[in-house]
Design goal:
Length: 99
């Protein structure tokens, strides 16, 4: 199971968990195969962020590329105490997600 942003959904993906509205009502049930119509409706809902779909997460970048991108983002601020701490937290998260 992976969480996918609504804007990245593709027809044919299957829901691993039901999609609920803000009131807890089921909009789409677990196992639903998404269609263009389903995706369009979900994208129109401003509060909808991510949905859980069946599948394995495959990183778009290698671990080395992800860590290089992290270093680049924190280059100017990594010597500030709080920013250095944040960088270490993000680095641990990135490394864990590749294992």
């Amino acid at each position: 199971m992976i969480k996918v942003p609504v804007n990245s959904l593709k027809p044919g993906m299957k829901l691993a968990k039901p999609v609920l509205n803000d009131g807890g009502m089921i909009l789409l049930g677990e196992g639903t195969e998404l269609t263009e119509a389903h995706i369009g409706r979900l994208q129109k809902m401003s509060s909808m962020g991510n949905v859980s779909v069946v599948g394995d997460a495959k990183p778009e970048k290698t671990l080395e590329q992800a860590l290089a991108a992290l270093d680049a983002r924190f280059k100017k601020t990594e010597n500030e105490p709080h920013m250095g701490m944040l960088k270490r937290i993000f680095r641990a998260h990135v490394e864990e997600s590749y294992n």
